[in-house]
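Hi R.,

Here's the input for the protoporphyrin IX containing FE complex you asked about:
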Amino acid sequence: MTSAHIINEPSLATRINEADRHRAHVRLWLGIVLLVLFALVLVGGATRLTESGLSITQWKPIHGVIPPLSAQEWDEEFALYQKIPQYQQINQGMTVDQFKTIFWWEWAHRLLARTIGLVFALPLAFFWLSGRIEKRLKLPLVGILALGGFQGFIGWWMVSSGLVNRTDVSQYRLATHLVIACLIFASCMWIMRGLSPHAGDAAPTKSSKKWPRSSPSWRLSRFTSVRLWRALMPA
Ligand code: HEM
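And here is the predicted structure with protoporphyrin IX containing FE in place:
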């Protein structure tokens, strides 16, 4: 062994340790993103089940963070809701207190959506600039960020479909919203699991396209798709 090899050995070990530590940081970050996403999906579902989705009739990406703070502001917000068909045809006679309940669901959903934007974008910038993100993960992570922004747009596009002529949101736009939510969740999970110490494959690569038919995930996916297909198709 040459002296150059001996000198290089510790630096190689240090580099490997550092790469492992970086992977652990990125994994932890994606784990937190997934937790917030899970909460967001739950609140989104609750927003739908409580029929609260049309309570906020405006799209204010920044100022919308602040809810009505005085009785007068609540009256103004309620007055906007009273103009839409859902109030006029279904919720006539609703009180301001009842309105507040549906408002808070939708507001919490939008607030969590903004929060996830920050929880994703800020650490991404930090990890990127500090060289903690592997080259092959950069594009998938930027893709998820873009998908998140697109989801915000789809959210409003969906809400806008229920403000005129309808008393609920378009089912097609809702389905688009749900599919994108699933895509964001699945991609974060995929990348996080790919970074685990036992995984050899961190990002979608040529080899990760091969999905062995014997694997439990393939079987589960096939079982679910077949069941879903049978449930949706007329007999
Ligand atoms: C990453 C961001 C987001 C995710 C992951 C997400 C996810 C979801 C999910 C899973 C649902 C339940 C869908 C269902 O029951 O089929 C939902 C509902 C809903 N989301 Fe989002 N959402 C996000 C952002 C937004 C934004 C920014 C808005 C508004 C501008 C929005 C507006 C709504 C509304 C109004 C509903 C209820 C629809 C109804 O009235 O039936 N979402 N969301």
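One thing worth noting: The helical segments are 3-49, 71-82, 85-89, 96-129, 135-160, 171-194, 216-232.

Cheers,
M.
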